[in-house]
Write a structure and sequence with these properties.
- With 391 residues, the protein is of the alpha/beta class.
- It folds into two domains: 1-153 and 373-391, no CATH class; 161-368, no CATH class.
- Helices cover 25% and strands 30% of the residues.
- Strands 5, 7, 8, 10, 11, 12, 14, 15, 17, 19 and 21 form an eleven-stranded parallel sheet that branches. Strands 1, 2, 3, 4, 22 and 23 form a six-stranded antiparallel sheet that branches.
- The longest helix has 62 residues, at 5-66.
- It is elongated, with a radius of gyration of 34 Å.
- The protein starts with a helix and ends in a 7-residue tail after the last strand.
Length: 391
């Protein structure tokens, strides 16, 4: 059966119409697919930028925890290069449109619920600040903000204590030089003991240094001074948590010999924790080639958790705090400039052994409130509209 010319023409028109419709449909699908891919990429860039901004907020909190900026102090900063280097480049490319990968700003509060953008430190001293973090990667950008507060306890090492022992203290000097003394500008310090204090005479301590046995049954109104009063356990636990721990002194010496010129604690102050065994001062590696460990400007903390601290014969000067779970025996030419705390008996003999040094204590940062954390204030987090790129 043959189609007539008119029918053949109608069929051709129908086929062309179907082809045109299919072409339009394919073009629409291609466009839709392209838009989906583009939108997915844009959405992914926005999500990544948001993650960068959130990380900037966390880094801002860590910055304030490391050094809370009080009135008149330096404006805190986040190093943008070090921050960006933490992110893998393929997943987090450089920001487009001239934006910065990260920008973290710190602002004081206005004493109420608002923000004082003209001040970048805690000028009003109320322990509250705002952090604004802008993150950008690829085409994405995000900005977040939150109020944070400083959580602290007024726990501090007791002022003007050169030596504290929960046991007995025996001071036997040569008479040529006080065994317990003062480093300027100190004018006064104490030697405290839970048991007895036995000395040759007042010549064993420098003028201005007083001794006080703190018996279990003191006569009122002279209360017993405890280890917790002098060196709170919360501070000790914080020091142990922050310090670099070694199984014993030999482990520390081995580490030190393989890391010349490097202290075992990366941030200030330097802390060494010896977990077991006795420590002799002569075995502590020097920091400057002289028989000196640390310095007045950069002091340290030595904690001996399960052992005694000794210094026998060899000259060695330590700037910082020595905290010992057992006893202390310092003889010969040993010197500790700062503070000595022992849970056992203390024997000091020979020449000068302990000098109270207020500069060392101040540089260790243990004479003021202890910052436990910097946390976000609930219900203050907000997402902001990031600045639009310039045309």
């Amino acid at each position: 059966m043959h189609l007539r010319n008119g029918e053949r023409g109608a069929t051709l028109i129908l086929i062309l119409g179907v082809i045109a419709a299919l072409a339009i449909l394919v073009a629409a699908l291609v466009m839709l697919s392209s838009n989906v891919v583009r939108n997915s990429r844009a959405q992914s860039a926005e999500v990544k930028a948001f993650n960068v901004a959130e990380a900037g907020l966390d880094t801002g909190q860590a910055t304030l925890f490391d050094k809370w900026p009080g009135p008149g102090e330096t404006t805190p900063t986040v190093d943008p290069v070090a921050f960006e280097n933490q992110f893998p480049k393929p997943q987090f490319p450089a920001a487009m449109y001239g934006r910065d990968f990260i920008d973290v700003q710190f602002y004081d509060d206005d004493g109420g619920s608002g923000i004082n953008t003209a001040v970048n430190v805690d000028q009003n001293g109320n322990g509250i600040m705002w952090i604004e973090s802008s993150g950008a990667t690829g085409s994405g950008a995000a900005m977040v903000m939150a109020k944070v507060e400083r959580v602290e306890y007024d726990l501090r090492v007791r002022d003007n204590v050169a030596l504290y022992s929960e046991g007995n203290v025996e001071v036997k000097g040569t008479g040529h030089q006080p065994v317990v003394g003062l480093d300027p500008p100190a004018t006064a310090a104490q030697v405290l003991a839970g048991g007895s204090i036995d000395m040759n005479g007042q010549a064993d301590v420098e003028p201005g240094v007083t001794t006080k046995p703190s018996t279990l049954n003191p006569t009122p109104p002279d209360p017993r001074i405890t280890l917790q009063d002098v060196f709170p356990s919360e501070i000790l636990l914080g020091i142990i948590s922050a310090g670099k721990s070694f199984a014993n002194m030999n482990a520390y010496k081995a580490w030190k010999s393989s890391h010349p010129g490097v202290e075992p604690f990366a941030t200030y102050p330097r802390i060494i924790i010896i977990e077991n065994g006795d420590v002799d001062a002569k075995d502590m590696p020097e920091t400057d080639g002289l028989p000196t460990v640390w310095s007045e400007e950069d002091p340290g903390i030595l904690v001996v958790l399960n052992g005694n601290f000794n210094a026998t014969g060899q000259k060695k000067t330590i700037y910082g705090i020595v905290y010992v779970s057992k006893g202390v025996v310092l003889g010969g030419n040993a010197e500790v400039h700062g503070m000595v705390v022992a849970k056992g008996n203390v024997l000091l003999h020979g020449t000068r052994a302990v000098n109270y040094n207020p500069k060392v204590m101040a540089n260790l940062g243990l004479q003021g409130p202890l910052t436990l954390t910097v946390r976000r204030v609930p219900n203050t987090w907000r997402e902001l509209q990031p600045p639009q790129p310039s045309p």
